[in-house]
Amino acid sequence: MYDEHHRQEPSHGIDVTVKRRLELSSMKAEEENVIDDLTPRDASWAVRNEPAFHPGLLAMNPISVTVSSMRTKSWKLLRSCREQAVRVALLALFTLLLVGVLINFGSGRLVSRGSGSLEQSIFKVVLDAGSTGTRIHVFKFRRRDGDITLERTADPEMTFFRKVDGGLSAYKENPEEAREGLLKEASIGVPEAVGCQALLLATAGLRLIPPQAAEELLQVSRRVIRESPFTLVRDEDVAVLDGSEEGLYMWRSVDFIYGAHSSALTSKPSAVVDLGGGSVQLAYRTLKGSQVSPSDRNKFTDYLRPTYPIGAAASSTSSEKRMKDYFLASAASIQPQSMADGPLYVHSWLGYGLEAARQRVLQENTNGTSPCLIPSDDLPQYYDYAGRCLATVRAALDLHQDCGATQASECAFNGAWRGPIDPSSYTFRVFSYVFDVARSNGLVPTGAHEVVITVAQFRDVARVRCAETVGGGSLPWACLDAVYVTSLLSDGFGIPDTQPTVVAERLSYDKGGLLYAAWPLGAALERLDFVVAFRFLAMIRRPAASRGVHRSSPIGVIKAPGSNKNTPPRGAGGQKAAGGGGGLALPLQKKFGQHLLKNPGILDKIIEASDIKSTDTVLEIGPGTGNLTMRLLELAKKVVALEIDPRMAAEVKKRAQTSGRMNLKVIEGDALKTAFPVFDVCVANLPYQISSPFTFKLLAHRPVFRCGVIMFQKEFGERLVARVGEENYGRLAINCQLFSKVTRVCNVSKGSFNPPPEVDSMIVKFVLHKDPINVDFPEFDGLLRIAFTRKNKTLHSSFMNKAVIKVLEENYKTYCSLHSQPVQYQGPAFKAHVENTLRGSGLAESRAMKIDIDQYLALLLEFHRNGIHFVNVSDPSTTTDRAATDAFSMEVDSA
């Protein structure tokens, strides 16, 4: 968490050339004066005081420049030099801030390794609050030249690991009891990891207790982490993990290990089964040849997720979160196995974990006895004991319940769809309680952490255990557990009796390094989203100087479409409400595009839409003389106001001090060049020519904030809120709605301002999706650029353009070369390949403005499956091919 005690005021350097010019101009001076105020006031920089930061990133040495009294001409030169120095310093500061923010978000240390390569160490702490215990994992990742590897934090273990008995749900009567144990375990770790991001995710145990008790436990856990040496980036990092998310993260963990390093049975894709205490999950990637009928595809959308298995996003049944399961293609080199062709199948059965299943099986018999409990010595014995228990377990699994699939063989148990899986085509990797059952029954050699066995061996163990008595040395649950595991794997998941199956407790990595086979590694991989922030920020486009756009100020001169007059509503930040209300008659400056709002009703709309809480920090862009600022100060814990005009900045500070408001911080600077602090709500009033880059900078800000309420030119706002099929629906709407929910608050007429501009305005609200969206944004935007070249034409027409085919073919050849793959398609054959891919998606005859976001994401995945990319993959920083841009004459997002 950012804190005032951890903030520093950086000093600013001045260019040597500038210094020399000042010295030359003072040669004829008779007396010397010291100018010691070359930096803008209140340019504070919030940083974390933690060892992850390199000291060189935190400050620049101040330089005092000695000058003499000058004639008017000399002072003009001095003023010009000072302004240039400030601009240079602010640009350098913004660059350093950006690097610092990205490093901090990953809790990483950036180190130069020569030859231009950089290494970054990233630590993540994951607390797994399960149904039977709380486990702490500390992961250390190393990123170098685009590759991510896992580093050791213990020996022989790959990760630091601790466990305390009793899950969070055990504290449901008194949540405060969870505090001491969590603090103790979270503080025992790797010293280098202090200050890194920590998250606590609870599984089945917390899903089974009342919601109010669960939320109390989560609130306690959030407070515990905030008071620990680690960082809670957002409240959502302490949450109840959905069963499907648990399965998805487990699959990612396994795929990361087995995809990058050879091990047993790696020639086949992995199907992961994780048997916990309260639930069991199945996850696998469907193969390209798997056939799912159209009716089944529509019926079982909750089971299938079109993803790349790198990066991450929480899985969900909602389309909003399904779209987030597109991972960063830039990191795909980590896992070769991950490039299989089908979508990911994930499902979780709550109540079918081993401990929950024991109760479920016992409930099948209402006479007080069960054939699955090992009898005592004085009870009669049955030769057929294992068979009778197996029948009871099968009844508890409800194997005969119809799941609604076209093929009955695709039904698993309890009415759930198993998917189009041919078990013989996969290596099943089974974890958690299955390993415990195997080890307790002698199927795992002493000291081994992984073994390859068969279902037939479990079946043999079940026959032996169910024929024993308690007096024979077996535990009462031994028969039931062995039979349940056998039936679950065989009847539930369809694994043949003789098929080799990998059963493991730990995974081997990096020459024998071990780590526990569990989902937290996948959850930690998801939080490597500093990559997303960096690539997304790289997409901020600056309007060309040839278009006459002034970029030195976030309140620069704005020109209305088709007009040469300055027409920027300055927005609610610099308003002067009707009747004065404390606003001073400061002369408005045309270069800042200042128009004061005279309609107080608009202030009410902004306040209402912002939904500010007493604990919020509000970032206000363009406060002006402070009419809205004063309202915000009454509601929020803190307001950080960013203002380009020093006169306005001084006025708003004076008003706050006069009113006794001490919760205001004013920063003088450019909204596009100044790093934003951590905040909960953003209120902004923009010059309209920076609407597009500001919007994407705001959406890229991390940690994720709650909402933004921004005033735009009405035309631009209508393009933001447009829905599929509407006239204004295009790239801008899709890209913004990919990352946030965008809604119209109200329209603002030009008569609401003084002086009135020539265009109307609109207030738009952004509510960011809670989970980071990891999509290869340049690729996605490249697809949209082609699709919206002619938005009223079909995709087939747009993609069959000669210039498009030429660029895509060049990218395809580059991709094949980089991945040592033969070039299968050239010339007419490649054009046919693109056409077949497009028709295979079912969208060839659809028009760009009629296709929704989910469909575009699915289309991108289909193109990637076939080796077709929209960015020059030899240069990942390139967002689109320049030749293609010229050929396509694509639209510019800036208003």
Automatic annotation (TrEMBL):
Ranges of Gly residues composition bias in the record: 571-580
CDD domains attached to this UniProt entry: AdoMet_MTases (cd02440)
Catalytic center residues: E246
Coiled coil: none
InterPro entries per the UniProt record, alphabetical: GDA1_CD39_NTPase, KsgA/Erm, rRNA_Ade_Mease_Trfase_CS, rRNA_Ade_methylase_Trfase_N, rRNA_adenine_dimethylase, SAM-dependent_MTases_sf
GO MF: ATP binding; hydrolase activity; RNA binding; rRNA (adenine-N6,N6-)-dimethyltransferase activity
Positions bound to S-adenosyl-L-methionine: H595, L597, G622, E643, D670, N685
Sequence similarity: Belongs to the class I-like SAM-binding methyltransferase superfamily. rRNA adenine N(6)-methyltransferase family.
Protein name as annotated: rRNA adenine N(6)-methyltransferase
